[in-house]
Amino acid sequence: MSVPYIDNPADLAAYCTELRRHDWFALDTEFMREKSYYPQLCLIQIATPDGAVCIDPFGIDDLGPLLDLLYDPAILKVLHAARQDLEIFHVMRGTPPAPVFDTQLAATLLGHGDQIGYGALVKETLGVELEKAHSRADWSLRPLTPEQLEYAADDVRYLVQVYQKQRAALEQNGRLPWLAEDFAALSDAHTYDNPPQEAWRRIKGVNFLKGVQLAVLQQLAAWREQVAQDSDRPRRWVLKDEVMFDMAKLMPDSLDKLGRIRGLEKGILERNGQRLLELIQQGRKMPQDDWPQLEPVVRLTPPQEALVDAMMALVRLRAMEQQVSVPTLAPRREVERLLGDDTDAALRHGWRAQLVGHDLQRLLRGELLLRVVDGRLQISQFTP
User: Fold this and answer.
1) N or C, which end of the chain has less CB nearby within 10 Å?
2) Secondary element (H or E) of residue 268
């Protein structure tokens, strides 16, 4: 079949008029970011029960009519693994579209496991095996081939059917409201913020630094993040993680010593060497009270570890009974927070508390027992 292809303002305006008749549609994008900080939008795919279209942003200066629909609060946008797609529109308008429905998140409450890929979800839900030949295509090149357009359209064509089945199942078992908080977080602008002063937390190996080294790393990482954002270049093109780590660890105080850092490119040293030394010095002079702090590592005692193991056994049993993935229901770190009497632990609130959190607290109070009957784990009420 031939996929409708929109690459001019007039056709886009006409299509958006037609699209407005619907109260939801499926959405996906193709983008590139190997050579940029921000994702570069290359193609937009939209589908309704009436069919799928591909929209080429390269031929349309003003995507306003489409963006108006994306940001219409009366129209639901259905995506799979929505975060990267929504980030593109967050960059355009300073906030992501809303409301949204993420089929990957919904799948965790329907027995499909955690973070299932789109192809696997389509196969498990619809029995359709999707083509994978163009998964690594350069979507910035034109013209796009008919095969590429078919591949791209499949990303929303079957998403329509997956959504319809998921929504019906979630409404039938009463779980649709459970996802409201997670879907709202996808439309929260703060989800996509990358403040330069917090960039140090994402540097590989940060846990191996301490004290003033972290202060130096914070200065270097904030500078790199700001430069990458301002120039729209990948972070690694500005300064590689491993080079920045060694700078923070060794804290060189001269261009000669800086130049001995393994992996530091000559061009970067020539252009930014003096600035890097200044940043290192700023970090070294930072008052100790202002040094950044790593999240404290909570080390459980052996008896506590054993207790968490028992609690996770109860979690796995409830997850299996309810056909919910364990990481979605109660990852181990949340179980540890509950054991540590953290009042903000997710297992104390909402549907997670109802499914397993209350039972975990009863287990800790000795009101429930774990036992093996005929080779199977069971939960029973404690009776003195």
Assistant:
1) C
2) helix 266-285
Check residue 210 and give its pLDDT: 94
85: enclosing H helix or E strand:
helix 83-93
- C-alpha 29/C-alpha 79 separation (Å) is 10
Q: Point out the domain boundary residue: 290, 312, 341.
A: 290
Task: Give CA separation, 268 vs 238, 243, 255, 290, 305, in Å.
Answer: 8, 11, 12, 29, 47
Per the CB < 8 A criterion, the answer to whether 224 and 235 are in contact is yes
Q: Which residues pair with 29 in a beta bridge?
A: 44
Is it the case that residue 265 has pLDDT exceeding 70?
yes
Which of 167, 192, 217 is where one domain is finished? Answer: 192
- Residue 338 sits at the vertex; the CA angle it makes with 337 and 344, to the nearest 5 degrees, is 75
Q: Indicate the helix (H) or strand (E) that contains 244.
A: helix 241-250
- Catalytic residue numbers read 28, 30, 85, 151, 155
Q: Which domain holds residue 165?
A: 5-192
Question: Given pLDDT bands bounded at 50, 70 and 90, which one contains residue 46?
Answer: very high
Answer whether residue 1 shows pLDDT above 60: no
Pairing of strands 24-32, 40-48: antiparallel
Q: Is residue 124 part of a domain?
A: yes
Whether 11 maps to a domain, the answer reads yes
Has residue 188 been placed in a domain? yes
**Do residue 51 and residue 172 come from a single domain?**
yes
